[in-house]
């Protein structure tokens, strides 16, 4: 009896590491010390010595049950982008620059090519965010998970100058709310998605004219990473007063997280075109409007609060970065909540 006979293939683990190295190399920043294979990822922080009061920011998250779609469609090269996005977008909400990322893959059986495909997506997400993938773990769990399934989670660290942190404290009535378009459902609410649609290869490969693609292609579209978008707004000289990453809990839970006491957010539902996937889900699943806005991003993945005089400059900067953005409402003196109108 040996470890391989018990279900853990050490040689497959070595092979996975070798296959993923080429992807990891593409994310390397100058601050990264050493390479993959050590016991700890090393990142030189001497660059932040020039900051007055550097504040480290961290975020950790996963992709939820969206991975189920990757299993069914046998497509694993984008789910890693989702994992990175869920972490670095939260860091960007505080005005931070993501520095490095670590991933954790738990699988029933280590198939090196599949693991390398997952990590290629993680590396692409890191590249988009400007972060380095400095380490991770692939854990083989025979008997605990089915052989063809896995779960993916990650952890990111970033930095921001304390005086430049985005806290929402300066938001006042009359500030403008800008919504930056999402790339689709992103990585939240998939337990409900899987109740609305039949999760089979036949269903997911069905073409929908309103979507302009198959259902699976639409739902697997990776989460938009907003790090560069928010940076472009700041570099345009705009003070971002508050930010909300629209994740699980949709508008009603996430937008209030950036609001100070006594300030409400008035969001105009007709201020932008809701992507067809959300209309389709509401119709097919008979999902009420409040539930949709309380579960999904409804086409807006990030909300910014800026002064009225800064709105045009913010929109211009976002357009130059390649992001669609809209004025979706304003703040008002009221209870700390979201008012759809």
What does this entry look like structurally?
Helices cover 33% and strands 24% of the residues. The strands form 4 sheets. The chain has a 6-stranded mixed β-sheet. A 4-stranded mixed β-sheet has the order 3-6-4-5, covered by helices on one side. A hairpin with a 4-residue loop joins strand 8 and strand 9. Helix 1 packs parallel to helix 4, helix 3 runs parallel beside helix 4 and helix 8 crosses helix 12. The radius of gyration is 21 Å and the shape is globular.
List strands and helices in order, with pairings.
Elements: H1 10-25, E1 32-33, E2 42-43, E3 54-62, H2 67-73, H3 79-93, E4 97-107, H4 112-129, E5 132-140, E6 150-161, E7 176-181, H5 190-196, H6 201-204, E8 207-208, E9 213-214, H7 215-220, H8 227-235, E10 242-245, H9 250-254, E11 263-267, H10 276-285, H11 289-293, E12 300-306, H12 311-321, E13 325-333, E14 338-340
Parallel strand pairs: 4-5, 11-14
Antiparallel strand pairs: 1-2, 3-6, 4-6, 7-12, 7-13, 8-9, 10-12, 11-13
Helix pairs in contact: 1-4, 3-4, 8-12
Overall pLDDT metric: 93
User: How large is the share of residues in beta strands?
Assistant: 15-25%
Q: How many strands, what sense, and barrel or not for the largest sheet? A: 6 strands, mixed
N→C terminal distance: 67 Å
Structural class: alpha+beta
Number of strands: 14
Which oligomeric state applies? single chain
Tell me the overall shape. Answer: globular
Radius of gyration equals 21 Å
* Sequence of strands across the biggest β-sheet: 10-12-7-13-11-14
The ordered string of helix (H) and strand (E) elements is HEEEHHEHEEEHHEEHHEHEHHEHEE
Portion of residues within helices: 25-40%
How many helices? The count is 12
In the predicted model, the low-confidence regions spanning at least 5 consecutive residues are none
């Amino acid at each position: 009896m040996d470890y391989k006979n018990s279900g853990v293939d050490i040689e497959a683990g070595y092979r996975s590491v070798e296959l993923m190295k080429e992807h990891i190399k593409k994310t390397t920043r100058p601050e990264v010390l050493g390479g993959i294979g050590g016991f700890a990822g090393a990142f030189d922080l001497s660059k932040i010595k020039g900051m007055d009061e550097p504040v480290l920011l961290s975020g950790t998250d996963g992709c939820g049950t969206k991975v189920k779609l990757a299993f069914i469609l046998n497509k694993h090269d984008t789910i890693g982008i989702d994992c990175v996005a869920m972490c670095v977008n939260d860091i960007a909400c505080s005005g931070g620059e993501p520095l490095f990322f670590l991933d954790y893959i738990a699988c029933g059986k280590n198939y090196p090519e599949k693991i390398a495909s997952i990590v290629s997506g993680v590396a692409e997400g890191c590249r988009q965010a400007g972060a380095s993938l400095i380490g991770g773990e692939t854990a083989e769990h025979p008997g605990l998970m089915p052989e063809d399934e896995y779960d993916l989670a990650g952890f990111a660290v970033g930095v921001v100058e304390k005086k430049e942190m985005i806290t929402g404290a300066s938001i006042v009535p009359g500030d403008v709310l800008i919504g930056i378009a999402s790339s689709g459902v992103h990585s939240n609410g998939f337990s409900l998605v899987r109740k609305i649609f039949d999760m089979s290869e036949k269903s997911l490969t069905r073409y929908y004219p309103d979507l302009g693609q198959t259902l699976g292609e639409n739902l697997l579209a990776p989460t938009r990473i907003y790090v560069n978008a928010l940076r472009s707004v700041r570099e345009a000289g705009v003070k971002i007063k508050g930010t909300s990453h629209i994740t699980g809990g949709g508008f009603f839970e996430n937008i209030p997280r950036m609001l100070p006491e006594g300030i409400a957010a008035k969001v105009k539902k007709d201020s932008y075109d809701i992507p067809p996937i959300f209309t389709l889900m509401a119709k097919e699943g008979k999902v009420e409007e409040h539930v949709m806005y309380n579960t999904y991003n409804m086409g807006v993945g990030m909300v910014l609060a800026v002064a009225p005089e800064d709105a045009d400059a913010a929109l211009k900067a976002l357009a130059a970065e390649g992001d669609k953005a809209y004025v979706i409402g304003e703040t008002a003196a009221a209870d700390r909540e979201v008012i759809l109108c």
